[in-house]
Design brief:
- By secondary structure, the chain is an alpha+beta fold.
- It folds into 2 domains: 210 residues; 162 residues, 2-Layer Sandwich (Heat Shock Protein 90), CATH 3.30.565.
- Helices cover 70% and strands 8% of the residues.
- The protein contains 12 helices and 8 strands.
- The strands form 2 sheets. The chain has a 6-stranded mixed β-sheet with strand order 6-7-5-4-2-8.
- α2 packs across α5, α2 packs antiparallel against α6 and α6 packs parallel to α7.
- The chain is rod-shaped, with a radius of gyration of 64 Å.
Length: 525
């Protein structure tokens, strides 16, 4: 028994939802077609018996009674004429003859196919014809005085013949009544059968509907509800919940696909957890490295600079005390030593400033760039005066950022524009500000020596110098620090390759609120 069930389940295990639906619809249509056929047959049977009873049996019995009534009228007229000799008494006879003919014309088709009824009718017509021939015909055709005598002579014969006719009519009507009673019983049985059949049809339809709904619940809605419930549990965090497929093959395949997706998500989650753990470890290492970097910055700012100051100071003391005793080459060596110590101090200070961007100075607040620009120009006043530079700028907006870092940004940008000026023209530097798409776009344009296209990306890399320290002093950290400051504030910085002569640096900073560009302001050299 179990092996047969397993074989049946295996045979239907590959059926999809569509195939189950097609099979269910087909079986339902077949059942409904059979029930409809049975119901139609019951209706047809009932209508046939009803038609037989209404259109044949009852009219035949009624017409048989009318034939009897017509013959009785004829007999009454003949008897009255035979007794009185007055022809007025023949009127019932005349009407009876006419009515008999009409009724017989209707009765004969009604009895077609019923041998016994036709035999009864033939017997009635034979006896009626005999009575007409022997009694009614001679009496009606005889004169009044002869008709009385003829009727008296044939009274016994007429009575006997008409009694036989009455018996034949009674027999015919008895048979017709029996046939009508039989048809009535058949009609009652057919009606009862029809009612029972429609009741059975209604019950079967209800059962089919129940089977269909139960099949849909177990085969489609149930598995889908289970899959949806499990999917919601997985979505709420139960990633270890395995999804089990039930129902038709395509729903099981859908569950298998969702289960594969769950396993993939679980693998990705585990991988993400591992990556997050690794990231936490790296963050801890980075935090430790930053702490070590801060310790190094402290050492560099104190312990490393102190020996450099000693080297520079004692070398200068040596030059002043024994300068008259040393030759020109010794003085040159002393100058190299002092210059190297000073440049080392500048490099250490620049590195310290670069490392502190986003770490030491990190107080985001509203910053009025007009005030920052004013302080920057004050700090660069000596360089501006010595170079004869003309610096102009638009009305600068208020942004969100760190005041110290933004001051370092403008000071580096303007000092670079002054430093790398052209020797054959007066330096002109302009700072523009334009608001667009929620950001402020600034541009620092000059007419200096410019930057070759192949070096326009390298200048933002730490310690990248395009000139010797003798031609242009510096450590190569300025633009790298500007890039770090701008990116720390969520902006971008780059060089406009189409600007000539000179250089045009374009940078963006997020806007506090968009505002139109203001007219140019000018700072005199």
């Amino acid at each position: 028994m179990n092996s047969k069930s397993a074989d049946a389940e295996g045979a239907f295990s590959t059926w999809t939802t569509r195939r189950w639906l097609w099979a269910g619809v087909s079986v339902t249509l077949i059942v409904l077609a059979v029930l409809g056929s049975l119901g139609g047959w019951a209706m047809w049977r009932t209508s046939q018996i009803t038609a037989e009873l209404v259109d044949r049996r009852s009219p035949a019995l009624i017409d048989s009674m009318r034939v009897q009534e017509a013959l009785v009228n004829q007999e009454t007229g003949i008897r009255g004429y035979g007794l009185s000799g007055q022809r007025d008494f023949l009127q019932p006879y005349t009407r009876g003859v006419a009515e008999e003919k009409v009724v017989l014309r209707r009765l004969r088709p009604l009895l077609a196919g019923d041998e016994r009824a036709r035999a009864d009718l033939a017997d009635v017509e034979r006896l009626a014809g005999s009575w007409q021939e022997r009694i009614a015909g001679p009496v009606t055709s005889a004169p009044a005085e002869d008709a009385v005598q003829l009727a008296t002579e044939r009274a016994e014969e007429g009575k006997s013949t008409f009694d036989s006719l009455r018996k034949a009519l009674a027999r015919q009507q008895s048979h017709l009544e029996a046939e009508r009673a039989t048809a009535s019983r058949e009609l009652r049985h057919a009606t009862k059968l029809r009612n029972w059949m429609f009741a059975v049809i209604a019950v079967v339809i209800v059962l089919v509907a129940f089977v269909v709904f139960e099949g849909l619940r177990r085969g489609i809605t149930g598995p889908l509800s289970l899959l949806g419930s499990d999917a919601r549990d997985v979505a709420q965090g139960r990633f270890d919940l395995a999804l089990v497929g039930k129902g038709p093959a395509d729903l099981r395949q859908l569950t298998s696909d969702v289960e594969s997706m769950r396993r993939r998500l679980l693998e990705e989650l585990q991988s993400s957890e591992a990556s997050r753990t690794l990231l936490d470890e790296q963050a801890a290492d980075l935090k430790r490295s930053n702490a070590e970097l801060e310790q190094f910055a402290y050492v560099a700012s104190h312990d490393l600079q102190e020996p450099l100051r000693k080297v520079s100071s004692f070398t200068q003391l040596l030059q002043r005390r024994y300068g008259s005793q040393l030759d020109e080459r010794a003085d040159q060596y002393i100058a190299f030593a002092v210059d190297g110590a000073n440049r080392m101090q500048v490099l250490i200070n620049d590195l310290l400033a670069f490392s502190r961007v986003g770490r030491v100075h990190n107080e985001h607040q509203t910053v009025d760039l007009e005030e920052v620009m004013s302080k920057t120009l004050d700090n660069l006043s000596v360089a501006v005066e010595e170079s004869g530079a003309e610096i102009t700028h638009d009305v600068l907006p208020t942004v969100v950022g760190d005041t110290t870092q933004l001051g370092m940004l403008w000071q580096n940008l303007l000092s670079n524009a002054i430093k790398f000026r052209s020797s054959d023209r007066t330096p002109h530097i302009h700072v523009s500000a334009v608001s667009a798409d929620g950001v402020w776009e600034f541009a620092v344009s000059d007419n200096g020596i410019g930057i070759a296209p192949e070096f326009q990306e390298k200048v933002f890399i730490l310690f990248q110098r395009l000139h010797t320290k003798d031609a242009y002093p510096g450590t190569g950290i300025g633009l790298a620090m500007c890039k770090k400051i701008v990116e720390f504030h969520g902006g971008t910085i780059g060089i406009d390759p189409d600007h000539t002569p000179g250089t045009r640096l374009v940078l963006t900073l997020p806007a506090v609120e968009a505002a139109p560009a203001a007219p140019e302001r000018k700072t005199q050299p």
